[in-house]
Protein backbone atom coordinates (compact mmCIF):
# COMPACT_ATOMS: atom_id res chain seq x y z
CA UNK A 1 0.00 0.00 0.00
CA UNK A 2 1.49 3.34 -1.06
CA UNK A 3 2.09 5.84 1.76
CA UNK A 4 -0.52 8.59 2.27
CA UNK A 5 1.07 12.05 2.33
CA UNK A 6 0.55 15.12 4.55
CA UNK A 7 2.55 17.34 2.14
CA UNK A 8 0.72 18.95 -0.79
CA UNK A 9 0.12 16.59 -3.69
CA UNK A 10 0.34 18.05 -7.22
CA UNK A 11 -1.65 16.12 -9.86
CA UNK A 12 -2.55 16.08 -13.56
CA UNK A 13 -4.56 13.45 -15.40
CA UNK A 14 -4.91 12.71 -19.09
CA UNK A 15 -6.30 10.11 -21.44
CA UNK A 16 -4.37 8.95 -24.53
CA UNK A 17 -5.43 6.96 -27.59
CA UNK A 18 -4.23 3.84 -29.40
CA UNK A 19 -2.99 4.35 -32.98
CA UNK A 20 -2.82 1.83 -35.83
CA UNK A 21 -0.23 2.46 -38.53
CA UNK A 22 -1.08 2.33 -42.22
CA UNK A 23 2.57 2.88 -43.17
CA UNK A 24 4.48 0.71 -40.73
CA UNK A 25 7.42 1.60 -38.49
CA UNK A 26 9.73 -1.41 -38.59
CA UNK A 27 13.46 -0.98 -37.99
CA UNK A 28 15.69 1.23 -35.84
CA UNK A 29 18.72 3.17 -37.02
CA UNK A 30 19.57 3.91 -33.37
CA UNK A 31 18.22 1.55 -30.70
CA UNK A 32 19.21 3.75 -27.73
CA UNK A 33 17.54 6.92 -28.99
CA UNK A 34 14.80 4.82 -30.66
CA UNK A 35 15.27 6.36 -34.10
CA UNK A 36 13.49 4.63 -36.99
CA UNK A 37 14.87 3.60 -40.36
CA UNK A 38 11.75 4.94 -42.10
CA UNK A 39 8.90 7.37 -41.59
CA UNK A 40 5.46 5.97 -40.70
CA UNK A 41 1.85 7.14 -40.61
CA UNK A 42 -1.07 6.12 -38.44
CA UNK A 43 -4.71 6.72 -37.72
CA UNK A 44 -5.46 7.67 -34.11
CA UNK A 45 -8.38 5.58 -32.82
CA UNK A 46 -11.29 6.90 -30.81
CA UNK A 47 -10.90 6.98 -27.04
CA UNK A 48 -14.61 6.23 -26.77
CA UNK A 49 -13.54 2.63 -27.49
CA UNK A 50 -9.91 2.29 -26.37
CA UNK A 51 -7.88 4.55 -24.09
CA UNK A 52 -5.26 4.75 -21.38
CA UNK A 53 -6.01 6.96 -18.35
CA UNK A 54 -2.95 8.23 -16.47
CA UNK A 55 -2.45 10.46 -13.43
CA UNK A 56 0.98 11.94 -12.78
CA UNK A 57 1.49 13.30 -9.28
CA UNK A 58 4.39 14.49 -7.17
CA UNK A 59 4.80 15.32 -3.50
CA UNK A 60 7.54 15.89 -0.92
CA UNK A 61 5.66 13.35 1.21
CA UNK A 62 6.24 10.45 -1.22
CA UNK A 63 9.08 7.95 -0.82
CA UNK A 64 12.25 9.15 -2.58
CA UNK A 65 12.06 6.80 -5.60
CA UNK A 66 9.63 7.53 -8.43
CA UNK A 67 6.74 5.02 -8.58
CA UNK A 68 4.65 3.72 -11.48
CA UNK A 69 1.54 1.52 -11.18
CA UNK A 70 0.04 0.01 -14.35
CA UNK A 71 -3.38 -1.65 -14.21
CA UNK A 72 -3.04 -2.03 -10.44
CA UNK A 73 0.47 -3.55 -10.55
CA UNK A 74 3.54 -1.65 -9.25
CA UNK A 75 6.26 -1.54 -11.94
CA UNK A 76 10.02 -1.55 -11.46
CA UNK A 77 10.87 1.80 -13.08
CA UNK A 78 14.61 1.39 -12.44
CA UNK A 79 14.72 -1.60 -14.79
CA UNK A 80 12.95 0.31 -17.60
CA UNK A 81 15.55 2.47 -19.34
CA UNK A 82 12.80 3.79 -21.61
CA UNK A 83 10.65 5.07 -18.73
CA UNK A 84 13.73 6.57 -17.04
CA UNK A 85 14.68 8.37 -20.30
CA UNK A 86 11.18 9.88 -20.64
CA UNK A 87 11.08 11.05 -17.00
CA UNK A 88 14.62 12.51 -17.17
CA UNK A 89 13.71 14.59 -20.28
CA UNK A 90 10.47 15.83 -18.72
CA UNK A 91 12.24 16.78 -15.45
CA UNK A 92 14.93 18.64 -17.40
CA UNK A 93 12.24 20.73 -19.13
CA UNK A 94 10.58 21.50 -15.77
CA UNK A 95 13.93 22.50 -14.34
CA UNK A 96 14.42 24.99 -17.18
CA UNK A 97 11.11 26.62 -16.18
CA UNK A 98 12.08 26.69 -12.50
CA UNK A 99 15.50 28.19 -13.34
CA UNK A 100 13.82 30.95 -15.34
CA UNK A 101 11.15 31.69 -12.70
CA UNK A 102 12.15 31.26 -9.05
CA UNK A 103 8.56 31.65 -7.82
CA UNK A 104 7.57 28.27 -9.31
CA UNK A 105 7.35 25.31 -6.90
CA UNK A 106 10.37 23.03 -7.37
CA UNK A 107 8.34 20.11 -8.73
CA UNK A 108 11.38 18.77 -10.60
CA UNK A 109 12.95 17.85 -7.23
CA UNK A 110 9.91 15.90 -5.92
CA UNK A 111 9.35 12.14 -6.29
CA UNK A 112 6.69 11.15 -8.80
CA UNK A 113 3.79 8.73 -8.34
CA UNK A 114 2.26 7.80 -11.69
CA UNK A 115 -0.83 5.59 -11.94
CA UNK A 116 -2.18 4.30 -15.25
CA UNK A 117 -5.11 2.12 -16.35
CA UNK A 118 -6.19 0.84 -19.75
CA UNK A 119 -9.92 0.55 -20.41
CA UNK A 120 -9.30 -2.50 -22.60
CA UNK A 121 -8.26 -5.93 -21.35
CA UNK A 122 -4.66 -6.96 -22.01
CA UNK A 123 -6.26 -10.17 -23.27
CA UNK A 124 -7.66 -8.18 -26.22
CA UNK A 125 -4.19 -8.64 -27.69
CA UNK A 126 -3.73 -4.96 -28.50
CA UNK A 127 -0.33 -3.43 -27.93
CA UNK A 128 -0.79 -0.85 -25.20
CA UNK A 129 2.70 0.69 -25.17
CA UNK A 130 1.80 3.49 -27.60
CA UNK A 131 -1.17 4.77 -25.58
CA UNK A 132 0.70 4.05 -22.33
CA UNK A 133 3.84 6.09 -23.06
CA UNK A 134 1.83 8.88 -24.74
CA UNK A 135 -0.35 9.18 -21.63
CA UNK A 136 2.67 9.09 -19.30
CA UNK A 137 4.47 11.86 -21.20
CA UNK A 138 1.31 14.00 -21.59
CA UNK A 139 0.37 13.63 -17.90
CA UNK A 140 3.83 14.53 -16.56
CA UNK A 141 4.11 17.43 -19.05
CA UNK A 142 0.73 18.73 -17.76
CA UNK A 143 1.78 18.23 -14.12
CA UNK A 144 4.94 20.26 -14.83
CA UNK A 145 3.06 22.91 -16.85
CA UNK A 146 5.44 22.43 -19.79
CA UNK A 147 4.90 24.78 -22.74
CA UNK A 148 6.16 22.25 -25.33
CA UNK A 149 3.77 21.39 -28.19
CA UNK A 150 2.60 17.80 -28.83
CA UNK A 151 5.12 17.73 -31.70
CA UNK A 152 7.97 18.61 -29.32
CA UNK A 153 6.71 16.17 -26.68
CA UNK A 154 6.64 13.42 -29.33
CA UNK A 155 10.45 13.44 -29.21
CA UNK A 156 10.21 12.35 -25.56
CA UNK A 157 7.43 9.78 -26.05
CA UNK A 158 9.42 8.22 -28.91
CA UNK A 159 12.09 7.22 -26.40
CA UNK A 160 9.45 5.25 -24.45
CA UNK A 161 8.15 3.40 -27.49
CA UNK A 162 8.48 4.43 -31.12
CA UNK A 163 4.81 4.19 -31.96
CA UNK A 164 3.92 6.22 -28.82
CA UNK A 165 5.05 9.45 -30.48
CA UNK A 166 2.09 9.14 -32.88
CA UNK A 167 -0.46 8.85 -30.00
CA UNK A 168 0.13 12.44 -28.82
CA UNK A 169 -2.08 13.74 -31.64
CA UNK A 170 -5.47 12.95 -33.09
CA UNK A 171 -6.56 12.22 -36.65
CA UNK A 172 -3.91 11.23 -39.19
CA UNK A 173 -0.36 11.40 -37.84
CA UNK A 174 3.05 11.04 -39.50
CA UNK A 175 6.24 10.19 -37.65
CA UNK A 176 9.04 11.76 -39.71
CA UNK A 177 12.12 9.55 -39.38
CA UNK A 178 14.47 12.56 -39.42
CA UNK A 179 18.14 12.45 -40.39
CA UNK A 180 20.09 13.95 -37.49
CA UNK A 181 22.15 11.52 -35.40
CA UNK A 182 20.80 13.02 -32.13
CA UNK A 183 17.18 12.38 -33.20
CA UNK A 184 16.10 15.98 -32.68
CA UNK A 185 14.27 15.95 -36.05
CA UNK A 186 12.58 12.57 -35.49
CA UNK A 187 9.14 13.88 -34.59
CA UNK A 188 5.43 13.16 -35.04
CA UNK A 189 3.15 15.68 -36.71
CA UNK A 190 -0.53 15.83 -37.54
CA UNK A 191 -1.07 15.34 -41.29
CA UNK A 192 -4.81 16.03 -40.96
CA UNK A 193 -7.06 16.40 -37.92
CA UNK A 194 -9.87 13.95 -37.17
CA UNK A 195 -12.35 16.57 -38.43
CA UNK A 196 -10.79 16.49 -41.92
CA UNK A 197 -11.94 12.89 -42.54
CA UNK A 198 -14.12 11.87 -39.58
CA UNK A 199 -15.93 9.12 -41.51
CA UNK A 200 -13.01 6.67 -41.16
CA UNK A 201 -14.06 3.52 -39.25
CA UNK A 202 -11.98 0.60 -37.99
CA UNK A 203 -13.16 -2.93 -37.27
CA UNK A 204 -10.61 -4.82 -35.21
CA UNK A 205 -10.80 -8.61 -35.47
CA UNK A 206 -9.16 -9.95 -32.32
CA UNK A 207 -7.68 -13.37 -33.04
CA UNK A 208 -7.90 -15.94 -30.24
CA UNK A 209 -4.62 -15.80 -28.30
CA UNK A 210 -2.08 -18.45 -29.15
CA UNK A 211 1.57 -18.47 -28.21
CA UNK A 212 3.36 -15.18 -27.59
CA UNK A 213 4.66 -13.43 -30.72
CA UNK A 214 8.27 -12.29 -31.15
CA UNK A 215 8.37 -8.89 -29.32
CA UNK A 216 8.44 -6.08 -31.91
CA UNK A 217 11.69 -4.54 -30.63
CA UNK A 218 13.49 -7.89 -31.10
CA UNK A 219 11.68 -8.68 -34.35
CA UNK A 220 12.58 -5.40 -36.04
CA UNK A 221 16.23 -5.74 -35.06
CA UNK A 222 16.34 -9.23 -36.60
CA UNK A 223 14.76 -7.85 -39.79
CA UNK A 224 17.23 -4.94 -40.09
CA UNK A 225 20.18 -7.29 -39.52
CA UNK A 226 19.13 -10.13 -41.82
CA UNK A 227 16.49 -9.22 -44.44
CA UNK A 228 17.76 -8.47 -47.93
CA UNK A 229 14.43 -6.90 -48.87
CA UNK A 230 14.51 -4.52 -45.93
CA UNK A 231 16.83 -1.81 -47.30
CA UNK A 232 14.69 -1.41 -50.43
CA UNK A 233 11.59 -1.09 -48.28
CA UNK A 234 13.11 1.56 -46.01
CA UNK A 235 14.96 3.58 -48.67
CA UNK A 236 12.68 3.47 -51.71
CA UNK A 237 9.29 1.89 -51.12
CA UNK A 238 8.19 3.62 -47.90
CA UNK A 239 9.11 7.20 -48.97
CA UNK A 240 6.93 6.79 -52.10
CA UNK A 241 4.09 5.32 -50.03
CA UNK A 242 4.28 8.13 -47.46
CA UNK A 243 3.77 10.67 -50.24
CA UNK A 244 0.94 8.62 -51.78
CA UNK A 245 -0.97 8.11 -48.54
CA UNK A 246 -0.65 11.77 -47.51
CA UNK A 247 -2.17 12.76 -50.86
CA UNK A 248 -4.93 10.17 -50.42
CA UNK A 249 -5.72 11.57 -46.95
CA UNK A 250 -5.70 15.19 -48.17
CA UNK A 251 -8.09 14.22 -51.01
CA UNK A 252 -10.18 11.88 -48.82
CA UNK A 253 -9.55 9.28 -51.52
CA UNK A 254 -10.44 5.97 -49.84
CA UNK A 255 -9.54 3.62 -52.74
CA UNK A 256 -6.01 5.11 -52.87
CA UNK A 257 -5.73 5.04 -49.06
CA UNK A 258 -6.89 1.40 -49.07
CA UNK A 259 -4.43 0.15 -51.67
CA UNK A 260 -1.40 1.82 -50.07
CA UNK A 261 -2.47 0.57 -46.62
CA UNK A 262 -2.86 -3.06 -47.73
CA UNK A 263 0.33 -3.04 -49.78
CA UNK A 264 2.35 -1.59 -46.90
CA UNK A 265 1.03 -4.16 -44.44
CA UNK A 266 1.88 -6.93 -46.90
CA UNK A 267 5.32 -5.43 -47.57
CA UNK A 268 6.13 -5.17 -43.86
CA UNK A 269 5.11 -8.81 -43.29
CA UNK A 270 7.16 -9.80 -46.35
CA UNK A 271 10.29 -8.37 -44.70
CA UNK A 272 9.39 -10.36 -41.58
CA UNK A 273 9.18 -13.56 -43.66
CA UNK A 274 12.46 -12.52 -45.34
CA UNK A 275 14.21 -12.23 -41.93
CA UNK A 276 16.54 -15.03 -40.87
CA UNK A 277 15.23 -17.01 -39.09
CA UNK A 278 11.85 -15.94 -40.51
CA UNK A 279 9.30 -14.18 -38.31
CA UNK A 280 5.57 -14.91 -38.70
CA UNK A 281 3.04 -12.54 -37.20
CA UNK A 282 0.07 -13.31 -39.45
CA UNK A 283 -1.57 -16.74 -39.17
CA UNK A 284 -4.31 -18.68 -41.02
CA UNK A 285 -7.03 -16.55 -39.38
CA UNK A 286 -5.23 -13.34 -40.48
CA UNK A 287 -4.96 -14.67 -44.03
CA UNK A 288 -8.68 -15.53 -44.04
CA UNK A 289 -9.41 -11.87 -43.20
CA UNK A 290 -7.14 -10.77 -46.10
CA UNK A 291 -9.02 -13.05 -48.48
CA UNK A 292 -12.44 -11.80 -47.37
CA UNK A 293 -11.44 -8.11 -47.68
CA UNK A 294 -10.25 -8.72 -51.26
CA UNK A 295 -13.44 -10.71 -51.98
CA UNK A 296 -15.68 -7.91 -50.66
CA UNK A 297 -13.80 -5.25 -52.67
CA UNK A 298 -13.99 -7.36 -55.80
CA UNK A 299 -17.73 -8.12 -55.41
CA UNK A 300 -18.57 -4.45 -54.74
CA UNK A 301 -16.32 -3.39 -57.64
CA UNK A 302 -14.37 -0.74 -55.70
CA UNK A 303 -12.13 -0.67 -52.63
CA UNK A 304 -14.53 -0.29 -49.69
CA UNK A 305 -12.25 -1.87 -47.05
CA UNK A 306 -8.55 -2.21 -46.27
CA UNK A 307 -6.75 -4.55 -43.86
CA UNK A 308 -3.59 -3.92 -41.90
CA UNK A 309 -1.70 -6.17 -39.44
CA UNK A 310 0.86 -5.22 -36.78
CA UNK A 311 3.28 -7.48 -34.94
CA UNK A 312 0.56 -10.04 -34.23
CA UNK A 313 -2.35 -11.83 -35.96
CA UNK A 314 -5.17 -9.31 -35.28
CA UNK A 315 -6.70 -7.67 -38.36
CA UNK A 316 -7.62 -3.98 -38.38
CA UNK A 317 -10.04 -3.24 -41.21
CA UNK A 318 -10.51 0.39 -42.24
CA UNK A 319 -13.65 1.50 -44.11
CA UNK A 320 -15.85 4.60 -44.42
CA UNK A 321 -18.99 5.09 -42.38
CA UNK A 322 -21.17 5.13 -45.52
CA UNK A 323 -19.96 1.59 -46.33
CA UNK A 324 -20.74 0.21 -42.85
CA UNK A 325 -23.40 -2.17 -44.13
CA UNK A 326 -21.17 -3.47 -46.93
CA UNK A 327 -18.12 -4.00 -44.75
CA UNK A 328 -18.99 -4.34 -41.06
CA UNK A 329 -22.43 -5.72 -42.01
CA UNK A 330 -20.81 -8.51 -44.01
CA UNK A 331 -18.34 -9.37 -41.24
CA UNK A 332 -21.17 -9.32 -38.70
CA UNK A 333 -23.23 -11.71 -40.85
CA UNK A 334 -20.18 -14.00 -41.21
CA UNK A 335 -19.19 -13.93 -37.56
CA UNK A 336 -22.61 -13.76 -35.91
CA UNK A 337 -23.77 -11.11 -33.50
CA UNK A 338 -23.05 -13.34 -30.50
CA UNK A 339 -19.31 -12.66 -30.85
CA UNK A 340 -18.37 -10.09 -28.19
CA UNK A 341 -17.73 -6.45 -29.09
CA UNK A 342 -20.31 -5.39 -31.68
CA UNK A 343 -22.19 -3.09 -29.33
CA UNK A 344 -20.65 0.21 -28.25
CA UNK A 345 -20.35 3.80 -29.41
CA UNK A 346 -19.94 3.05 -33.14
CA UNK A 347 -22.68 0.41 -33.42
CA UNK A 348 -25.41 2.90 -34.45
CA UNK A 349 -25.01 2.60 -38.24
CA UNK A 350 -25.05 -1.21 -37.99
CA UNK A 351 -28.02 -1.60 -35.67
CA UNK A 352 -30.58 -1.88 -38.42
CA UNK A 353 -28.43 -3.99 -40.73
CA UNK A 354 -30.06 -7.44 -40.84
CA UNK A 355 -28.50 -8.97 -43.94
CA UNK A 356 -24.88 -9.08 -45.17
CA UNK A 357 -23.76 -6.22 -47.42
CA UNK A 358 -22.55 -8.70 -50.04
CA UNK A 359 -23.97 -12.14 -50.88
CA UNK A 360 -22.16 -14.64 -48.67
CA UNK A 361 -22.23 -17.35 -51.36
CA UNK A 362 -19.85 -15.18 -53.38
CA UNK A 363 -17.08 -15.05 -50.76
CA UNK A 364 -14.51 -17.77 -50.09
CA UNK A 365 -16.33 -20.30 -47.87
CA UNK A 366 -13.12 -21.76 -46.42
CA UNK A 367 -11.97 -18.30 -45.35
CA UNK A 368 -15.39 -17.80 -43.71
CA UNK A 369 -14.98 -21.05 -41.70
CA UNK A 370 -11.42 -20.23 -40.62
CA UNK A 371 -12.35 -16.69 -39.55
CA UNK A 372 -15.47 -17.81 -37.68
CA UNK A 373 -13.57 -20.32 -35.58
CA UNK A 374 -10.52 -18.14 -34.92
CA UNK A 375 -11.72 -14.90 -33.33
CA UNK A 376 -12.23 -14.07 -29.67
CA UNK A 377 -13.95 -10.70 -30.13
CA UNK A 378 -14.31 -7.65 -32.34
CA UNK A 379 -13.84 -3.95 -31.56
CA UNK A 380 -15.79 -1.45 -33.62
CA UNK A 381 -14.14 1.97 -33.57
CA UNK A 382 -13.22 5.04 -35.63
CA UNK A 383 -10.66 7.79 -36.13
CA UNK A 384 -10.46 9.93 -33.00
CA UNK A 385 -8.87 12.82 -31.11
CA UNK A 386 -5.54 13.09 -29.33
CA UNK A 387 -4.96 13.07 -25.54
CA UNK A 388 -7.55 14.86 -23.39
CA UNK A 389 -6.98 16.44 -19.99
CA UNK A 390 -9.53 15.08 -17.45
CA UNK A 391 -10.37 15.24 -13.74
CA UNK A 392 -10.85 11.47 -13.14
CA UNK A 393 -7.68 11.33 -11.05
CA UNK A 394 -6.17 7.94 -10.24
CA UNK A 395 -4.31 9.53 -7.30
CA UNK A 396 -6.34 11.11 -4.48
CA UNK A 397 -5.74 14.50 -2.85
CA UNK A 398 -3.57 12.87 -0.20
CA UNK A 399 -1.60 10.80 -2.68
CA UNK A 400 -3.58 7.59 -2.28
CA UNK A 401 -3.95 5.35 -5.34
CA UNK A 402 -7.52 5.13 -6.64
CA UNK A 403 -9.00 2.75 -9.21
CA UNK A 404 -11.58 3.44 -11.90
CA UNK A 405 -11.91 -0.20 -12.99
C1 LIG B 1 3.81 0.53 -36.11
N1 LIG B 1 4.69 -1.48 -34.92
O1 LIG B 1 4.15 1.39 -36.94
C2 LIG B 1 4.57 -0.78 -36.16
C3 LIG B 1 3.95 -1.76 -37.09
C4 LIG B 1 4.40 -2.87 -35.05
C5 LIG B 1 4.18 -3.11 -36.48
O2 LIG B 1 5.39 0.31 -33.81
O3 LIG B 1 10.71 -0.86 -29.94
O4 LIG B 1 6.25 -1.05 -29.73
O5 LIG B 1 8.98 0.29 -28.57
O6 LIG B 1 9.95 1.41 -30.58
O7 LIG B 1 6.59 1.05 -31.10
C6 LIG B 1 5.53 -1.68 -32.63
O8 LIG B 1 6.73 -1.24 -32.18
O9 LIG B 1 8.48 -0.59 -30.81
C7 LIG B 1 5.21 -0.89 -33.83
P1 LIG B 1 9.58 0.11 -29.94
P2 LIG B 1 6.94 -0.36 -30.86
O10 LIG B 1 2.87 0.71 -35.31
List the helices and strands and how they pair.
Blueprint: E1 10-17, E2 19-23, E3 28-30, E4 35-36, E5 40-44, E6 51-58, E7 67-70, E8 73-75, H1 81-100, E9 112-118, H2 129-143, H3 150-160, E10 172-175, E11 188-192, E12 200-207, H4 216-226, H5 230-250, H6 254-273, H7 284-300, E13 305-308, E14 315-320, H8 328-335, H9 365-374, E15 375-382, E16 388-390
Parallel strand pairs: 7-9
Antiparallel strand pairs: 1-6, 1-16, 2-5, 3-4, 5-10, 6-9, 7-8, 10-11, 12-14, 12-15, 13-14
Helix pairs in contact: 1-2, 1-3, 2-3, 5-6, 7-9
Give me some keywords for this one.
steroid biosynthesis, Alpha-Beta Plaits, ATP-binding, binds ligand 2P0, alpha+beta, 6-stranded mixed β-sheet, Ribosomal Protein S5, domain 2
Strand line-up in the sheet with most strands: 8-7-9-6-1-16
CATH architecture of the largest domain: 2-Layer Sandwich
Largest sheet: 6 strands, mixed
Order of helices and strands: EEEEEEEEHEHHEEEHHHHEEHHEE
Q: Estimate the strand proportion.
A: 15-25%
Q: What's the total count of β strands? A: 16
What is the radius of gyration computed over CA atoms, rounded to a whole number of angstroms? 22 Å
How confident overall, as mean pLDDT? 94
Structural class of the helices, strands and pairings? alpha+beta
Span between termini? 18 Å
- Small molecules (ligands, ions, cofactors) in the structure: ligand 2P0
The top level CATH class name of the largest domain: Alpha Beta
The shape, in one word, is globular
Low-confidence stretches: none
Roughly how much helix do the residues carry, as a percent range? 25-40%
